[in-house]
Amino acid sequence: MNRPKQSPxxxxxxxxxxxxxxxxxxLEKLGVKLVCLVHEWLKTEIGAFKPxxxxxxxxxxxxxxxxxxxxxxxxxxxxWIRFFCCCLCTLGPKYSEAKAIAxxxxxxxxxxxxxxxxxxxxxxxxxxxxxQFQEDFFGDHPAYDKLLEECQKAGSQKLTEQEGKQAxxxxxxxxx
Length: 176
Prior knowledge:
Blueprint: E1 2-4, H1 11-21, H2 24-30, E2 35-38, H3 43-49, E3 57-60, H4 65-70, H5 80-101, E4 118-123, E5 128-134, H6 144-154, H7 161-175
Parallel strand pairs: 1-2, 2-3
Antiparallel strand pairs: 4-5
């Protein structure tokens, strides 16, 4: 599964990375490899992101190919106008939630913050993209039950009911 991120320095992205990183043990049992792609490689931001928020493989998508795949051929970006118009009613609560999950994450003003990320679950072989989720606005994320369900479909193994409950509990622990 690929997780293209907005920016490894964004508080919302760091919290989301920490949440999905908590699913790593369950995903590994499924035979699903979890990697994170970033669209810019700023040394200070990468150093703050890994390993504190992301313990797995991290790659630079310099040409934004995965971002284009998520956006049906275009890199999905937000405008500064939408950001400022919506930040009071939408971003405030999302930011507060993200800070609760990643209290050790400081706001970042480095880099490009308008590129939206998402998730892409790929199946090995000729199956290609099994499922994808495009971030429409800052801090959007899929329902984790849906994400885990799609990874189970793509994985080479299956989780027992108990392992599925444990994965959900591990992810929820990150929210508290």
